[in-house]
Amino acid sequence: MKRYAGLLRGINVGGHKKISMADLRKLVEGLGHEDVKTLLQSGNVVFGSDSPDQQALATQLEKAIEAELGMSVGCLVRDGADLARIIAANPLGDVADNPSRHFVVFLSGEADPAKLAEVEALAKPGERLAAGEREVHMWLPDGAADTKLTHLLFQKRLGVTVATARNWNTVTKLTTLLT
Question: Vertex 59, ends 53 and 60: CA angle to 5°?
Fold first, then answer.
């Protein structure tokens, strides 16, 4: 059985799409997954599954949330190797000295370099982006509150169906839960 992290986009933010973590755990267990754990209130669920297909698992989560909770929520699934690779490759390690201001934007597909350059042009002075395989590292030295670099911007400009961000603290905690 392989361990996965499910990343739900936009739940429990600003009072919208409220899902209790107990309900999320129950939903994921009801899909036949094992050793289900949640992290924080922002849509992070870790589980074991026999399925090798991350996209199929993400689609399964999306459909179950829609059917059982009546919400349309974009989901991504990553395994421990993905998260370990993201941490090992950390292209912003030389500048990102505050893990709460270093973000990883997880994407449903690869980022086109030309489109990513267009997004980067919208960054405020000091903000930096660096592409990974299916993610973009983002350094926001002034925090996320006033940046133009939102998950919706990434989603729209990069042409991916789902983009969801987690700060470095959350990425490392999820990695720990997957081991």
Answer: 85
Model pTM?
Answer: 0.94
Sheet holding 163-167, edge to edge: 128-131, 135-139, 102-107, 163-167
Whole-number Å distance between alpha carbons of 89 and 2: 22
C-alpha to C-alpha distance for 114 and 128, rounded to whole angstroms: 16
Of 156, 163, 154, nearest to 58 by C-alpha is 163
Compute the distance between CA of residue 95 and CA of residue 62 in angstroms, rounded to an integer: 35
Q: What is the C-alpha separation between 137 and 164, in angstroms, rounded? A: 12
SS3 142: coil
Domains in the chain, start-ordered, CATH in brackets?
2-80 (3.30.70.1280), 86-169 (3.30.70)
For 34-76, the pLDDT digits (tens) are 999 999 877 899 999 999 999 999 999 999 999 998 999 999 9
Give the whole-angstrom CA distance, residue 52 versus residue 81: 13
What's the token pair of residue 45? 């669920």
Backbone φ and ψ of 151, nearest 5°? -60, -35
Rounded Cα distance, 66 and 171, in Å: 26
